[in-house]
Amino acid sequence: HVIMKICKQTLLNKEWDTLLDIVFANPSQYNTEQQLLFELNLYIISELISSSMEYLKHKLNDINNILTVAFSMGNTTMKENATVCLGNLISSLEKNELLHFKQFNNVLFKEIGNFNEKTIHRIYETLCDFQINSLYFFEDNFDIIIPITIQLVNNADISANTKIVLCEFMIMIAKYKKKTYTKNANAFLKELITLAFTLLSNPLNEHE
């Protein structure tokens, strides 16, 4: 990967701090003409978190500030990049470190319906792969996440491969906190039963 080759080279040349200063520039310093630069830096930050988090622990506050700007003021592409970045944080940090980022849960799932399928698939796949962290991270927001996930599964434009991952995530929640589905007179449970009958009538095919 080109970006990671550059990053490794900066480490070898002892120029890592210089790279971080550029990538983690204060988001308030960007002007409207630098939108693409901000998007690129978000992407780089996400990749760095995925591969080099041990070198970035001192940058958690900066990451928080950058994500705040991306989610509150960014366009859809920025929010998608920020979502992938958040997913990589879930897979790379300890529970106590994730506390600093829980504030983004609501906005993430309010926006996720606007994202492209690749981003949706990637974030749910990350949540399933790192379920101990993700369940802890999102447990206060299950009431928001479940209906949105059900809507996505019912979306005819979403592929079978992605729907399988979405269903896996809902099963994961049920195993972790089954009472979530029986709240409010079994509201979510009724929706899931309806969804299950729909899926049984039209089985998902991973190769669709």
Q: What is the end-to-end distance? A: 29 Å
* Count of DSSP-assigned helices: 12
Spell the H/E element sequence. Answer: HHHHHHHHHHHH
Class by helix and strand content? Answer: mainly alpha
**Mind describing the biggest β-sheet?**
none
- Tell me roughly what share of residues is in helical segments: over 70%
Counting DSSP E segments of at least 2 residues, the number of strands comes to: 0
Share of β-strand residues: under 5%
User: Which regions have little confidence, pLDDT < 50, spanning 5+ residues?
Assistant: none
**What is the overall shape?**
elongated
Mean pLDDT: 81
Our Rg estimate from Cα atoms comes to: 19 Å
Explain the overall architecture:
The chain is an all-alpha fold and 208 residues long. Helix content is 72%, strand content 0%. The protein is built from twelve helices and no strands. Helix 3 packs parallel to helix 5 and helix 8 packs across helix 9. The longest helix is centred in the C-terminal third of the chain and has 19 residues.
Supply database-style keywords.
208 residues, mainly alpha
Explain the layout of strands and helices:
Layout: H1 2-12, H2 16-23, H3 35-52, H4 60-73, H5 76-92, H6 95-98, H7 105-111, H8 117-129, H9 131-138, H10 142-154, H11 160-176, H12 183-201
Give a quick precis of the structure.
The protein is mainly α. It is built from 12 helices and no strands.
